[in-house]
């Protein structure tokens, strides 16, 4: 026997999924066939009378102490999934009929209903009607799910062909209840009933005998009806089998129709997607013509930009995730991607060749026109406004070339740098030449501390400020120009670096530029080309590439700046101080990363100026050292007062941060001066102290004013003062030792003998007697020579130690007389 659908766990799970969210529990589910009509009567089969597969499901829902039972009818959706309820229509003529597959399914369903009622109510409900065959008819079903609340009331099960309706049954009970039977003695009543029953039976028999012909006719009619019913039953069995086969065929047809319908929907969606893909793969003819052979004239740039934008979008549209990954490997997509790559390569090559030639032609045109450069008698400030205006026409094109092929920017940058480098070097060379030719200044001597010219050397006071002004003018004109060119190049060539300086910015306290045209030129208008490429963060790799390109752009221009520095040095070496300060001021103003080569240029100029000034300092030091080779030096050396004059002049040239440069020179000068002075003094020990005293005193006197305002010179001023005191002390000690030399030698002999003999024996030694002591003391402290030396010593002590008290010359004379 086939397994009952009531035991199908998969069916139960499908029913639970269909009512998910209702908090109901499936108690039983069973497959049935839905049809309409009254069983036992023939009916014409039509569309509305076709049997349909359904599922009857009994569920319960507990809510506190109250429990509800539900009888649900579920139908299959298009995909064969239980998805909802059957649309039950109330029809009194032909109610829906549910046909089970067998009697066992019918009995299990009714048994389940009775058990639920017994569990909830505690008793079985009253059942009115009969069960016929394996069909179950429910007359009280409404549209939608059948929900029955099982309470203390009766659960009524109504079946097909009710013998007595419930209302009729209730009327009969009421009628019988009102009937009063007058019954007295039971036996008398029983006898009475027997007699009446016998009379009725006799009457019935008499009536039957009288109606025998009618009964025969009825029996014949019953027999004929029985035969018809049997025939009908056979026909119904045959129709039932055919209907079952037809139902299976219809289900199969519905399944195929559902599949065909789904396939049709999928095909329609596929066609739409393919149409979209084909539209994406289509190359407009006007764009193809522009990319492969269109001109790059200024008038045609808008069409070129539109073609670039379309090509960029088309290439991105064929990349995942912009394109579904399932399309990426289609042959048509691969072929179209290859075609677009060829278009891109062709356009990039044509555009790169055009721009290279365009940059070279612009620069060649400017170089061939002498009016762009400085000429004799006329200094001309370089003007690149027209050059930048023409380049800006192709700025957006460069942006699109970068997005199409980043590698093409390298050769374009090199071509731009090579062309513009020629123009910048030519402008710098012509400007520097005319600047030197138009600047009039007398040469100042480079020999400041030479001894051969004598102490009366006169120092020229010629005004050489025009030399510093010329250098400052060179920087004022070209440093902002180079910064602007660096900024323009960085943005024009699509380097992802921070902006340099705001348009028309201020550098080093002076406005960059001297007229309104140049201020307007600083507004490059490049950052608005493509906002997507602007980045605030620094990219070290981009900065390295930019600085490398800027080196190629500006390399060689430093030669003309160095030529101006060398020219200024020849006129007045001390002007290196002011030029160093000017350069330092510009270096402190260059903080932008993209101006890296400009800082390198300024650093190189600063190094060149420092080297030239160091050359001057070294030469001056050699001049000081040459004093050592001269014949015996007497009095104040010549370089002492000359250094004071030199220091005064150097202080006048100091600007900004050149103090360190000057202080280093002071340190080197004074160190060499003091060392040379000590060497010269050592050549004549007899007069060394006098020479040192005079020169240290002269150094202090000549630098007294400057030492009050210059810390470095103040340090050397105190050093000279200390050396002066040491020289005085040494000179006094020398005088004392020279006068009392015999007395000190006598004392030295006594100290040596005290290691070997007792003090009492020393006066008896040869040369150490009391007579010898008197002679030594008298010879050391007598005579006019001692008093003269003592007078000189007293004057020296009074000068050096004015607060100290020593015996006067008169007191010393009286002391000697008493001896």
UniProtKB/TrEMBL annotation:
<comment type="similarity">
    <text>Belongs to the SEC3 family.</text>
</comment>
<dbReference type="GO" id="GO:0006887">
    <property type="term" value="P:exocytosis"/>
</dbReference>
<keyword id="KW-0268">Exocytosis</keyword>
<dbReference type="GO" id="GO:0005546">
    <property type="term" value="F:phosphatidylinositol-4,5-bisphosphate binding"/>
</dbReference>
<dbReference type="InterPro" id="IPR028258">
    <property type="entry name" value="Sec3-PIP2_bind"/>
</dbReference>
<keyword id="KW-0175">Coiled coil</keyword>
<dbReference type="InterPro" id="IPR019160">
    <property type="entry name" value="Sec3_CC"/>
</dbReference>
<dbReference type="GO" id="GO:0000145">
    <property type="term" value="C:exocyst"/>
</dbReference>
<dbReference type="Pfam" id="PF20654">
    <property type="entry name" value="Sec3_C-term"/>
</dbReference>
<dbReference type="GO" id="GO:0005886">
    <property type="term" value="C:plasma membrane"/>
</dbReference>
<protein>
    <submittedName>
        <fullName>Exocyst complex component sec3A</fullName>
    </submittedName>
</protein>
<feature type="domain" description="Exocyst complex component Sec3 PIP2-binding N-terminal">
    <location>
        <begin position="49"/>
        <end position="120"/>
    </location>
</feature>
<dbReference type="Pfam" id="PF09763">
    <property type="entry name" value="Sec3_CC"/>
</dbReference>
<feature type="coiled-coil region">
    <location>
        <begin position="183"/>
        <end position="210"/>
    </location>
</feature>
<feature type="coiled-coil region">
    <location>
        <begin position="243"/>
        <end position="280"/>
    </location>
</feature>
<keyword id="KW-0813">Transport</keyword>
<dbReference type="InterPro" id="IPR048628">
    <property type="entry name" value="Sec3_C"/>
</dbReference>
<dbReference type="GO" id="GO:0006893">
    <property type="term" value="P:Golgi to plasma membrane transport"/>
</dbReference>
